[in-house]
Amino acid sequence: MELSADRHEHDADHLERIRRRDEAALGQLYDRFGGPVYSMLLRMTGDQGAAEELLQDVFLTVWRSASTWDPRRGSVQAWIVAIARHRAIDYLRTTKNSSLPLMHDIVSPEAGPDEAAVKASVASAVRESLDDLPKIHRDVLDAIYFAGLTHHETAQVLGIPVGTVKSRLRLALQRLARSLRLRGVVR
Q1: pTM for the complete prediction?
Q2: What is the CATH architecture assignment of 1-100?
Protein backbone atom coordinates (compact mmCIF):
# COMPACT_ATOMS: atom_id res chain seq x y z
CA MET A 1 0.00 0.00 0.00
CA GLU A 2 1.43 3.33 -1.08
CA LEU A 3 1.51 6.02 1.62
CA SER A 4 0.09 9.47 0.93
CA ALA A 5 3.52 11.18 1.01
CA ASP A 6 4.88 8.58 -1.43
CA ARG A 7 1.95 9.19 -3.76
CA HIS A 8 2.49 12.94 -3.66
CA GLU A 9 6.19 12.52 -4.40
CA HIS A 10 5.36 10.08 -7.21
CA ASP A 11 2.87 12.58 -8.67
CA ALA A 12 5.48 15.34 -8.50
CA ASP A 13 7.91 13.06 -10.37
CA HIS A 14 5.29 12.54 -13.07
CA LEU A 15 4.83 16.28 -13.39
CA GLU A 16 8.57 16.79 -13.70
CA ARG A 17 8.60 14.21 -16.51
CA ILE A 18 5.70 16.04 -18.18
CA ARG A 19 7.74 19.24 -18.05
CA ARG A 20 10.35 17.34 -20.09
CA ARG A 21 7.53 16.35 -22.53
CA ASP A 22 7.22 12.71 -21.48
CA GLU A 23 3.82 11.66 -22.84
CA ALA A 24 3.84 8.42 -20.83
CA ALA A 25 3.92 10.46 -17.59
CA LEU A 26 0.85 12.40 -18.72
CA GLY A 27 -0.89 9.11 -19.47
CA GLN A 28 -0.05 7.82 -16.01
CA LEU A 29 -1.43 10.94 -14.34
CA TYR A 30 -4.53 10.64 -16.52
CA ASP A 31 -4.96 7.00 -15.47
CA ARG A 32 -4.65 8.00 -11.81
CA PHE A 33 -6.87 11.10 -11.77
CA GLY A 34 -9.01 10.92 -14.93
CA GLY A 35 -11.85 8.91 -13.38
CA PRO A 36 -12.47 11.01 -10.26
CA VAL A 37 -11.97 14.28 -12.15
CA TYR A 38 -14.41 13.15 -14.85
CA SER A 39 -16.97 12.28 -12.14
CA MET A 40 -16.59 15.74 -10.64
CA LEU A 41 -16.95 17.42 -14.05
CA LEU A 42 -20.00 15.32 -14.91
CA ARG A 43 -21.69 16.19 -11.64
CA MET A 44 -20.91 19.88 -12.07
CA THR A 45 -22.02 20.15 -15.71
CA GLY A 46 -24.67 17.43 -15.90
CA ASP A 47 -23.54 16.83 -19.49
CA GLN A 48 -21.48 13.79 -20.49
CA GLY A 49 -20.10 15.39 -23.66
CA ALA A 50 -19.12 18.57 -21.84
CA ALA A 51 -17.48 16.58 -19.04
CA GLU A 52 -15.43 14.59 -21.56
CA GLU A 53 -14.37 17.74 -23.40
CA LEU A 54 -13.49 19.53 -20.17
CA LEU A 55 -11.49 16.51 -18.97
CA GLN A 56 -9.47 16.61 -22.17
CA ASP A 57 -8.94 20.35 -21.68
CA VAL A 58 -7.81 19.80 -18.08
CA PHE A 59 -5.09 17.36 -19.11
CA LEU A 60 -4.07 19.53 -22.04
CA THR A 61 -3.60 22.32 -19.49
CA VAL A 62 -1.53 19.97 -17.33
CA TRP A 63 0.62 19.19 -20.39
CA ARG A 64 1.06 22.84 -21.31
CA SER A 65 1.37 24.30 -17.82
CA ALA A 66 3.23 21.66 -15.81
CA SER A 67 5.92 24.19 -14.99
CA THR A 68 3.40 26.43 -13.19
CA TRP A 69 2.64 23.88 -10.47
CA ASP A 70 4.06 24.99 -7.13
CA PRO A 71 4.44 22.23 -4.52
CA ARG A 72 4.19 24.83 -1.73
CA ARG A 73 0.60 25.61 -2.78
CA GLY A 74 -0.70 22.04 -2.77
CA SER A 75 -0.42 18.57 -4.20
CA VAL A 76 -0.47 17.73 -7.90
CA GLN A 77 -3.89 16.23 -7.33
CA ALA A 78 -5.25 19.42 -5.74
CA TRP A 79 -3.79 21.42 -8.65
CA ILE A 80 -5.50 19.18 -11.23
CA VAL A 81 -8.82 19.34 -9.33
CA ALA A 82 -8.58 23.13 -9.17
CA ILE A 83 -7.98 23.32 -12.92
CA ALA A 84 -10.99 21.06 -13.51
CA ARG A 85 -13.21 23.00 -11.16
CA HIS A 86 -12.32 26.31 -12.81
CA ARG A 87 -12.94 24.86 -16.28
CA ALA A 88 -16.36 23.57 -15.21
CA ILE A 89 -17.31 26.89 -13.64
CA ASP A 90 -16.22 28.74 -16.78
CA TYR A 91 -18.24 26.31 -18.89
CA LEU A 92 -21.34 26.81 -16.75
CA ARG A 93 -20.98 30.58 -16.84
CA THR A 94 -20.63 30.76 -20.61
CA THR A 95 -23.10 28.12 -21.74
CA LYS A 96 -25.90 26.59 -19.75
CA ASN A 97 -26.56 29.33 -17.25
CA SER A 98 -25.81 32.36 -19.39
CA SER A 99 -29.48 32.90 -20.12
CA LEU A 100 -30.78 31.83 -16.70
CA PRO A 101 -30.94 34.30 -13.82
CA LEU A 102 -29.11 33.35 -10.64
CA MET A 103 -31.38 32.19 -7.83
CA HIS A 104 -30.55 35.19 -5.65
CA ASP A 105 -31.62 37.48 -8.52
CA ILE A 106 -35.12 36.02 -8.69
CA VAL A 107 -37.60 38.02 -6.66
CA SER A 108 -41.13 36.80 -6.15
CA PRO A 109 -43.93 39.12 -7.24
CA GLU A 110 -44.96 39.58 -3.60
CA ALA A 111 -41.44 40.47 -2.42
CA GLY A 112 -40.92 44.12 -1.68
CA PRO A 113 -37.67 46.05 -1.76
CA ASP A 114 -37.05 45.38 1.94
CA GLU A 115 -37.22 41.60 1.45
CA ALA A 116 -34.97 41.79 -1.62
CA ALA A 117 -32.42 43.84 0.36
CA VAL A 118 -32.44 41.32 3.21
CA LYS A 119 -31.91 38.44 0.78
CA ALA A 120 -29.02 40.26 -0.89
CA SER A 121 -27.47 41.01 2.51
CA VAL A 122 -27.75 37.37 3.60
CA ALA A 123 -26.25 36.16 0.32
CA SER A 124 -23.35 38.58 0.74
CA ALA A 125 -22.71 37.42 4.33
CA VAL A 126 -22.73 33.77 3.24
CA ARG A 127 -20.24 34.48 0.43
CA GLU A 128 -17.96 36.38 2.82
CA SER A 129 -18.17 33.60 5.41
CA LEU A 130 -17.27 31.01 2.78
CA ASP A 131 -14.35 33.14 1.59
CA ASP A 132 -13.06 33.38 5.18
CA LEU A 133 -12.81 29.59 5.56
CA PRO A 134 -9.36 27.99 5.24
CA LYS A 135 -8.73 26.52 1.78
CA ILE A 136 -8.73 22.92 3.06
CA HIS A 137 -12.26 23.41 4.39
CA ARG A 138 -13.50 25.30 1.31
CA ASP A 139 -12.16 22.52 -0.94
CA VAL A 140 -14.22 19.90 0.92
CA LEU A 141 -17.35 22.08 0.88
CA ASP A 142 -16.88 22.80 -2.84
CA ALA A 143 -16.50 19.13 -3.67
CA ILE A 144 -19.46 17.91 -1.62
CA TYR A 145 -22.00 20.73 -1.85
CA PHE A 146 -21.15 22.46 -5.12
CA ALA A 147 -19.70 19.64 -7.21
CA GLY A 148 -22.03 17.05 -5.66
CA LEU A 149 -19.34 14.49 -4.91
CA THR A 150 -19.76 11.82 -2.25
CA HIS A 151 -17.42 11.65 0.73
CA HIS A 152 -15.55 8.80 -0.94
CA GLU A 153 -15.22 10.64 -4.26
CA THR A 154 -14.07 13.77 -2.44
CA ALA A 155 -11.42 11.73 -0.65
CA GLN A 156 -10.21 10.37 -3.98
CA VAL A 157 -10.15 13.75 -5.68
CA LEU A 158 -8.40 15.54 -2.81
CA GLY A 159 -6.09 12.63 -1.99
CA ILE A 160 -7.10 12.43 1.67
CA PRO A 161 -8.76 9.72 3.78
CA VAL A 162 -12.57 9.62 3.98
CA GLY A 163 -12.36 10.28 7.73
CA THR A 164 -10.42 13.47 7.04
CA VAL A 165 -13.08 14.55 4.55
CA LYS A 166 -15.76 14.07 7.20
CA SER A 167 -13.73 15.90 9.86
CA ARG A 168 -12.97 18.83 7.56
CA LEU A 169 -16.60 19.02 6.47
CA ARG A 170 -17.79 19.08 10.09
CA LEU A 171 -15.24 21.77 10.99
CA ALA A 172 -16.12 23.79 7.89
CA LEU A 173 -19.82 23.74 8.73
CA GLN A 174 -19.11 24.68 12.36
CA ARG A 175 -16.89 27.59 11.29
CA LEU A 176 -19.43 28.68 8.72
CA ALA A 177 -22.24 28.63 11.31
CA ARG A 178 -20.10 30.57 13.82
CA SER A 179 -19.22 33.17 11.18
CA LEU A 180 -22.86 33.56 10.16
CA ARG A 181 -23.87 33.96 13.84
CA LEU A 182 -21.23 36.67 14.28
CA ARG A 183 -22.58 38.43 11.19
CA GLY A 184 -26.10 38.26 12.62
CA VAL A 185 -27.45 36.03 9.84
CA VAL A 186 -28.39 33.06 12.07
CA ARG A 187 -28.92 32.59 15.80
Answers
A1: 0.54
A2: Orthogonal Bundle (1.10)
